[in-house]
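Collaborator request, handled under Task 6.
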Amino acid sequence: MSEGPRLLIVEARVHDDITDELVRGAVEMLTRHGAGYKRIIVPSILEIPAVIRFAVRSMEVRATDQRFAGYVVLGCAIKGETDYYEHACTQAMSGVQQLALQFSLAIGNGILTCPNDELALARARVDDGNFGGLAAETALRMIAVKKELGL
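Structure tokens returned to the collaborator:
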């Protein structure tokens, strides 16, 4: 068991090859910093805010002993032929941000919103954009900021 903070990784499994890279980057970053983590898989980016809220609520009512110092959200939306992409991206990003603000949560947002698979994969690859690693690093930094401010 790690001595560092424990984070919840919420991963949307729509584009598995891209999400695999996001997760790999996040896990490597958290491990490097001695942080523990739990992974939860959801069907799409739209469910990510709900799962974070479920986790917060379960801590509020003490339904579980699992405590999370922060959250890493990972997933990918690729623009298609319909306007679903715009709605899904807007709702997922807005939901994550609202939770961070409403509950003072340390969240690293690793949701990619890209026009095509190639760009998304380039941004996700650990040896290229490493967006998952950046999201984990952001969550860790936000945990540190909360501590600096006495939260």
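The cover message to the collaborator said: "The first helix runs from residue 16 to 32. Helices lie at 16-32, 48-60, 84-103, 117-124, 131-148. Please let us know whether this matches your experimental observations."
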